[in-house]
Each structure stands twice: as C-alpha cells, then as structure tokens.
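Pipeline run #58 for the internal structure catalog. This entry was flagged by the ingest filter as a single-chain record with no existing model, so it goes straight to prediction. Upstream metadata was stripped on purpose; only the residue string is passed forward. Reviewer on rotation: M.T. Logging verbosity set to normal.
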Amino acid sequence: MTASSPSKLARYLSQVIENIDYIEGYVEGFDEAAFLKDRKTRDAVERCLQRITEALGRVKKQKAEKLIPGLPWAGIQGLGNRLRHEYDAIDGRQIWSTVKNDLPALKEDCSEALGKL
C-alpha cells in the first residue's frame, strides 16, 4: 500500500458510516409499508446505498478487503450495479431488508476497520 492509502481508506470507510447514518435517520419511525409508500425516502436511501457501494468498491481497489473479512464483496458490487444501471427494477422490499438486516453489521464492521487504520 502507498503512504496515502490509510488516509484514503479512512475516508472511504467514513463515507460508508456517514451514509448509513443518513439512512438510519431517513427511515427512523418507518416500517416496511411506510417505506414502500414514501418515494422520496426510498430515493434518498437508494442514493445513499449507491454511495456506500461506491466507497466499498474503492476500499476493494485499495486491496484492503482484509480490513473487513467476510464482507460479501460481489454482492455489494452487484447491488451498486443494479442501483446505477437497473434502477427501474429495484425491489423496495429488498432495499428495506438490506437497510434493516445488513447495514447495522456493515456499520459496525466499518467502524472496527477504521479503528485498525
């Protein structure tokens, strides 16, 4: 890794955490039904997820996958591709599931990785 890599990695990991924080704020008080009905919130969450996948892609390009072992890198890349290129076919229920089931652990993993830098 280059000398600037730790600062780049810290920036990317911080961006992931920041966007998860945004999502948590956007969906506070929502259940799945309310989320599915609120197009503005869904759009905001999808945009944050897109930024998260982009930041994690940059972590991977830095060859730093070992900072977050067990992360489903291919699945994250796939989600990013769908958000960018197949945005008209996004299933809101899957987005909700990602928000509720995957993001809390991802936030914790990124916080731990940030602490290792």
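catalog note: The longest helix spans residues 92-116.
catalog note: Residues 5-116 form one domain.
status: ready for reviewer M.T.
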